[in-house]
What we know:
Blueprint: E1 5-8, H1 13-23, E2 30-33, H2 41-51, H3 64-68, H4 78-87, E3 96-99, E4 102-105, E5 124-125, E6 131-133
Parallel strand pairs: 1-2
Antiparallel strand pairs: 1-3, 3-4, 5-6
Amino acid sequence: MSSITIFHxxxxxxxxxxxxxxxxxxxxxxxIEYLKTPPTRDQLLELIAxxxxxxxxxxxxxxxxxxxxxxxNPALGDDALLDAMLTHPVLINRPIVVTPLGTRLCxxxxxxxDILPLPQRGAFSKEDGEAVINERGERVAGH
Length: 143
């Protein structure tokens, strides 16, 4: 079993870049396509606790369902927000990565570099061509 897990959406460029950065270390993570296999309530609560963030911080606000369900209403409690994410997994922001060094919502994708146990093996550029890692496996300035 992999020591790295990514809650991944293959339709998301940030998620694809994050997965590629993990693989650039030579590791093959456990990939959970959370839209197909959503986390349970307990799993989601555990991930949020490990990240030490508020439940609202893990919500994807750009989704249509966020507005339709009026989830920006500050009167909504954590249980209501969790229920919405479990009913509509697209509302869970991504990618969430779990490694032995921590759990993080990797937005931007290079945030994963802070929790990867292995170094980068070579150059890496995001899908848009932005260089993140140089040919020596080192972060490019600003990343």
